[in-house]
Design brief:
With 275 residues, the protein is an alpha/beta fold. It has two domains: 181 residues, 2-enoyl-CoA Hydratase, Chain A, domain 1 (Alpha-Beta Complex), CATH 3.90.226; 63 residues, no CATH class. Strand 2, helix 3 and strand 3 form a beta-alpha-beta unit. About 3% of the residues have low confidence.
Length: 275
Amino acid sequence: MLEWIRNRFRRGPAVPVVRLAGLIAAGSLPGSRTLSIETVSPLLARAFSIRGAKAVALAINSPGGSPVQSSLIAQRIRLLAKEKNLPVIAFVEDLAASGGYWLACAADEIIVDPASIVGSIGVVSASFGFKDLIGRIGIERRVHTSGERKAMLDPFREEKPEDVERLKRLQAEIHEGFKAWVRERRGSRLMGDEAALFSGEFWTGKRGLELGLVDSLGELRTVLQERYGTKVYLPVIAPRRRFLARFGLGGSLGDIGVAALSALEERAYWQRYGL
């Protein structure tokens, strides 16, 4: 209601700001900031429906995650931008890497801080192997399948070269899709050698500008006020969190435990980029 009143009686133009912060993954967990098509689509719908909007801004701060969810969210952004005939401007905060950069490429323009981290155009899969551990503590692994590949890359069994090769083929297919998306969205703006750009390496925003991964340096409020005037209305569109969830409460003990593990996983994603 408050947002409706402000929108109704504002004096300046509007540029809604959609906050896309956190790990990109299917579903959501109590107290988490997971980005998925399920959690993000209502935010995008609200932003693109604001009366008289001149553009939609994306405030991105994400280490990436699921390529499928990244693709779904990016496609939804482009669909709404076309339907509403609105430009989309992405502003990168600390990080837009891997899937986070996938989201940034959904914008017509990418603006970063000189110290932002961008890129990491690649695919990674990580896990652990516990084969020797379970033997030491007297546990016998029993797996029965009806398909010879059904138990591929079981962490409690010896890693097979043919399974690793199959995984690499899957990763290569996903990587090709990622590269095709970046080429489609950035086109002739890309300035670096593709072998380096698509190697999975990441760069500062300043270097990303030189490579054509981004368009300019700047800060969200400053840039939008310069373009649309000092009275520009910048409503922030972000998930509404329940009161108890803000403190990690309100869920079962199981939910809280899963959320804690999710937080550790997300922390590991951020630490890949020194953050």
